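Re: the request from the purification team.
They wanted to know what the chain is likely to look like in 3D before they choose a buffer screen. I agreed to run a prediction and write the result into the notebook, where they can find it.
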Amino acid sequence: MKKIIALALAMVMAFSMVACGGGSSNEENELIATNPETIRILAQSSSEANANILRDQLTKAGFTVEMNTVPDSASWRQQREAGNYEIALTGWTTVTGNVDYAVRGIYHSTGNYNYGPILDTKVDELIDKGAEETAANAAVTYTELENYLVTEMAYTLPIYASMKMMAYNNELLTAEGIYQPKSRPGRWEMYEYVDAANNDTRKLTLTQTSSAVSTLDPIQANDGTMNTLSGNQYIKIINLSDDDEIMTDSSLSHAYAVGEGNATYYFLLRDDVHFAKTENGAAVDTGVLVAADDVVFSLNRAKNKDTINTHKTNTLHEHMETIEIVTDLEELKTVKDSDTGAAIIDTLNAGVEVPVAALTAVDEEVNNAAGTYQVVKVTTKYAFPQVLNYLAHQSAGILHKEQVELYNSKFDGMNYDPNSDICYGDYAQIKGGMTDMLWCSGPYQLISADDYGIEYEKNPGYMPEDEAFAPSIKYIYMKFIKDTTSATSAFRAGEVDILGSVSANDVATVESDAKFTVLKRSSNGVTYAVFNLLEGSKMTDVNMRKAVLYAINQDDFVAYNDGYVMPVYSTVGTLVETGNVHAQDLVKSNHHLALAQGLVTE
């Protein structure tokens, strides 16, 4: 009896009184005495400040925190896959500007970046439902999804939404050539020097923090180490504007049209883009047209998860049913445009000076100036206008079929072993000197790579007569600098010309120099944390996850970043107005921890 009384006293004594602010309860509440609970935080060194804030908040909530800070993304991935964490800090940028991308890859059970993993049929059903709905109806579904993901199940831990900030040297580069897209990577072909004499002689230096480039095959990764690189190496059949609107600028299409029912998509291809390759350390025009058969090959490869066992982006393209070359001109005259009701051919002709007179599947017959074009049709499994956003993603970059097969036909894709096989885009091989591997369809061709950076030369066969889109600057160097502080120092010292990401704490310092311009805008970038949901992990308990969730105060992250980040509820929140706001509540945190430990019942 005495033991029972003692146990009861232990559970109600050692109370602490808290006055919770910053969105917490304003009343004093008794906290339940809980058992010691250790939480391991996994983070890269570049996220150390965020990890430290998270540590302090969890410590305040009564947790014992162990830090596992690793130097780079490869080490982070290794530790995550080994399950050496309870919480792992990460981030996601919806580079396609559509909500399906913001959720499918990281929350759906089939998602390539569903790290937990979250395996919940309701999550899958809501994501799939939203994909098929009109924008208005989808907003309701995505709000329900966010409520379920965070409020009900605490599957994800929101930290903040980033502002997108970049800086450039305004004495060196023209303002007209600098674009700040909300989602997609920057377009290198638009950069131009104030002194045009520099265009063919001076190397433009950019920077990124990771030297551990995962791959230069568009479908084998979707991460910050390669997105910008791949996005400028390979052209797409469609593109995104700075504000996430679908456009044809800097794409392989003169124009596009959507058929009635929103399940057929037609693309009228240009004939002034050639593949480039590297010979003797220089970019050369292969003379090979980037053509319809390359589009069909690349998109089929992108949507087929069995292409290679390291495929990381198939979920972005699985909505496509067929990709085919249209040779029947009558089809374009018969099918109606979804928006205007006019014939598809009328919509396509509006994008060219010479109307479509003939279609061909034979590359050698293409002659836009004479009215002979190629048209590619994408048919989706159901009405899915968001497919256009995915086709603007780097993973839909157009590759040369024969060049890819030159390497990948030597092994079975589903048994690919990176230790013994060499596949197209293998960065280790490229860095080792195999620069002739890549045939690039985009504005820039990789000509050399090492541990310090990658050098590019403009593709001489990329829209050479189009003054609007032909690259102005001949050489671009992507310099690897391991952290943002060092990158900022290099920028201020003149070693870097464009700082693609400015740390919030460095904005004032950079802006104090008149020769630097800092551009700021909202973005679809979200910093969040994933829970270890592997079997046997304590984080499979929803109450343990909620104990962590309610311990988080986003205001601390906003303050640390000088107001240049914003509160967010999930990756949905930057695209859909859900009305959800996260609020720290240490009483709720304590209650859910007690529930997880079996000290109290609901």
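For the purification team: Residues 2-162+523-596 form a domain with the D-Maltodextrin-Binding Protein; domain 2 fold (CATH 3.40.190.10).
Please add any questions underneath this entry.
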